[in-house]
Amino acid sequence: MSYPRRGEIYLVRLPGHPADPIARPALVVSMDVRNRLAHDVIVVPLSTTLRPAPTHVELSVGEGGLKQASMAKYKQSHNSG
Length: 81
What we know:
There is one protein chain. The chain has a 5-stranded antiparallel sheet, with no helix packed on it. It has one helix at residues 32-37, and strands spanning 9-12, 24-28, 43-47, 56-59, 70-73. The chain has one domain: SH3 type barrels (Roll). The protein is globular. 7% of the residues lie in helices and 27% in strands. The chain has 1 helix and 5 strands.
């Protein structure tokens, strides 16, 4: 059985943005053993909107198959459940 691996990029629908009509690229950051055993994975959303900020990390063209320069954006979300 296949599972997401750390460092791979997937198109995902983010739970905090249910009205967003399109899937967004996200980088898998959770450990492979967790990805295999848990029912979810931890990802960092990616964006082509480049803004220098302490919570943004620039990614180069070619990293993970990116076709244009992108930013990884850290955003912590809290679940109330």
